[in-house]
Amino acid sequence: MIDRRTLTKSLGAALAVSAVPGTATADTGRRRYLIRDGAVVTVDPVLGVLPRADVLIDDGRIVAVGPDLAARGAQVVDATDMIVLPGFVNTHHHMWSALGRNFVADGFPYFAAKRATSTLYTAVDVYRSVLLGLAELANAGVTTVHNWSNNTRTPEHADAELRAHRDGFLRARFSYGHVDQMPRDVPMDFTDVDRVRQQYFADGSSGLVHFGVAVRGPSQSTEAAFVADMDAAVGRGLPVSIHAGQAPPRIVDAADFERRGWLGPKTLLCHYVTALDSDVEIVARTGTKFSWAPHSEFLLGAAGDPRSALLRFRQAGVPVSLSSDATSIAPSDVFETMRLLPEVGFRDVLEMATLNGARALGLGDVTGSITVGKRADVILLRADDINLAPGGLVETTAVQASTANVDTVFSDGRIIKRGGRLVHDVGRIVRDARASSLRIRREAGGILTP
Fold first, then answer.
1. Residue 287 DSSP SS3
2. With left for phi above 0 and alpha for psi between -120 and 50, is residue 137 left, alpha or beta?
3. How many angstroms separate the first and last alpha carbons of the chain?
4. CATH code linked to domain 4-87+369-419
């Protein structure tokens, strides 16, 4: 068995220099591991569920899956009475506002709180917020996140978010977005988008992070500004993400988007509660990616029955991925998210939380399943905890779990949680987030004043 204190110390030192944007990645935090005797839910269509099997990890890659593997020199992680899963993928998360989760109050919901505070975040604040969000995600078994940065106020803010990704250890897409509350008729300025792309992503990725753009949905901009934003993003060949609408009126006409060349595998639509059957068919036919945030759709969706909308997308063959939106709307607990989905089987919902999410971010060949050759983004759940005992069908048990059951998390072959504890300096992360939150609340005044 691994000594967690020794492991934490060595990994902490290695990871501190492991993914600095724009530099070569040091591999000193990776090891050769054998995850032994777990119930393995591979989410691989060929391998399926293995009631008792091993997973061999070498230099960050899954090199073998099966029972009784020989692995000379590997450090053994005993997975007896545990469920082994691919790490979860969150395809839509506004991480800059993680430290503002508690700005909401009775009579002061999400949008009011965002309007009162979004202009007050400094670059230091967003660094602290993104790092807080990454630690929370890792704790919950999320190994890949789409950081939908829809308040990228200055170049310094963008750099700060990327520094947080360097220090947060998770796989991610960073989607550079607009400045919150900017005038509706002003297009996004892509000057800094180009700077970030050249400085950090000239080779396509920076460590575990790749790059995209999050444009304002048509609800937040004039038609001319939105067209300019979309043409700028698509013209650069960047993955583009759009809030497609939860409330009337219908703001995304899929046929019009298709005519303009805006749909396809590089486009990710989120929400889209307003979609007509014709829109759903076009999304399916064009291979456009789709993210569904169950808490957000049910809390804010005012365009009819979100349940019906989700089922129509599934019936049309659209691979649905899952997300949490903002932390003041939903927790980063993927287990709770999975259990909110109606009429979706346990196997399907696990695929939505893992492989579908990886594919939605263009990472289906990299992560999302326990498959030989993929990177080792793997989590272990304690199946003998009181809330999961006495056990039973493995996939059912996995969906019924909670963050408290997440024992071990591998991100790209590095252990970032072991024995239920993160390698992050959680105390410092929380102290820094609290300081930023308190300052923002005081500056905002009114209902937010302590």
1. coil
2. alpha
3. 47
4. 2.30.40.10
Identify the burial level of 204 via C-beta atoms within 10 angstroms of its C-beta, where 0-12 means exposed, 13-18 middle and 19 or more buried: exposed
Query: Is the Cβ–Cβ distance between 156 and 179 less than 8 Å?
Result: no
Distance CA 131, CA 127 (A): 6
Q: Is the peptide bond before 249 cis (omega within 30 degrees of 0)?
A: yes
Query: What is the pLDDT, as a whole number, of residue 69?
Result: 97
* CA torsion through residues 49, 404, 8, 88, sign: positive
Confidence at residue 51, expressed as pLDDT on a 0 to 100 scale: 97
Handedness of CA 184, 325, 105, 436 (dihedral sign): negative
Determine the Cα–Cα distance for residues 338 and 223; give it in Å rounded to an integer.
35
Angle at 273 between CA 270 and CA 277, to 5 degrees: 110
CA angle 166, 172, 174 (to 5 degrees): 85
Nearest CA to 413 among 41, 142, 27, 16? Answer: 27
Give DSSP secondary structure letters for 290-351: EEE-HHHHHHH--SS-HHHHHHHHHHTT--EEE--B-TTTS-S-HHHHHHT-TT--HHHHHH
Written as one letter, the residue type at 229 is D
* Full DSSP string of 170-199: -EEEEEEE--TT--TTS----HHHHHHHHH
Q: Give the whole-angstrom CA distance, residue 55 versus residue 142.
A: 19
- Tell me the DSSP string of 32-100: EEEEEEEEEE---TTT-EEEEEEEEEETTEEEEEETT---TTPEEEE-TTEEEEEPEEEEEE-GGGGGG
Measured CA to CA, the distance from residue 251 to residue 303 in angstroms comes to 11
Under 8 Å CB-to-CB from 409, ≥6 apart: which residues?
A: 87, 138, 139, 141, 143, 378, 379, 380, 415, 416, 417
Give me the pLDDT at residue 15, please.
Answer: 31
d(CA 48, CA 244): 34
Look up residue 66 and give its amino acid: G
Tell me which amino acid residue 34 is. Answer: L
- The residue extents of the domains of the chain are 4-87+369-419, 88-360
Domain boundaries 88-360, corresponding CATH code: 3.20.20.140
CA-based radius of gyration for the chain: 21
Q: What is the DSSP letter of 26?
A: P
Cα 88 to chain centroid distance, Å, stands at: 8
Q: pLDDT below 50 — which residues of the chain?
A: 1-28
Is the pTM higher than 0.85? The answer reads yes
| Six-digit token string for 167 | 């220090």
